[in-house]
């Protein structure tokens, strides 16, 4: 599937999008709705998407683990050759459209770095996504 079609498929999927800034890093994180994950036949990790700048995201990253506690929290662990990244979204307020994010990077030698930031939050229902 082309990148365009994959992006269009994600855009048309019901779920929650987080546009986050932490220090100078910028990330967009998509989490599918509970209904979408329940109906999915296959690895639900493929439904979650993380994009952003190379400052905190390695080019060869893959989503290794997700703990989806939405509507209140979301945890995603990304693994890559150069470093692993943990994204911990908390204090989600859907009415205000805000949340907090902590980004923790771990280098192969065990050295870690953590930055905190904020996100704007938007949700799309199945009818809105169609």
TrEMBL record:
This is Uncharacterized protein. It comes from the Bacteria. The lineage of its organism: Bacteria, Pseudomonadati, Pseudomonadota, Alphaproteobacteria, Sphingomonadales.
């Amino acid at each position: 599937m082309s990148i365009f079609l994959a992006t269009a498929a994600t855009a048309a999927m019901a779920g929650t999008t987080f546009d986050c800034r932490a220090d100078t890093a910028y990330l967009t994180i998509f989490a599918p709705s509970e209904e979408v994950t329940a109906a999915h036949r296959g690895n639900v990790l493929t439904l979650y998407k993380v994009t952003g700048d190379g400052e905190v995201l390695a080019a060869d990253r893959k989503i290794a683990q997700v703990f989806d506690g939405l509507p209140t929290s979301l945890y995603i662990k990304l693994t890559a050759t150069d470093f692993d990244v943990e994204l911990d979204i908390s204090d989600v307020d859907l009415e205000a459209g805000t949340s907090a994010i902590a980004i923790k990077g771990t280098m192969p030698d065990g050295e870690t770095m953590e930055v905190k930031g904020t996100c704007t939050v938007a949700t799309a229902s199945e009818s809105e996504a169609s």
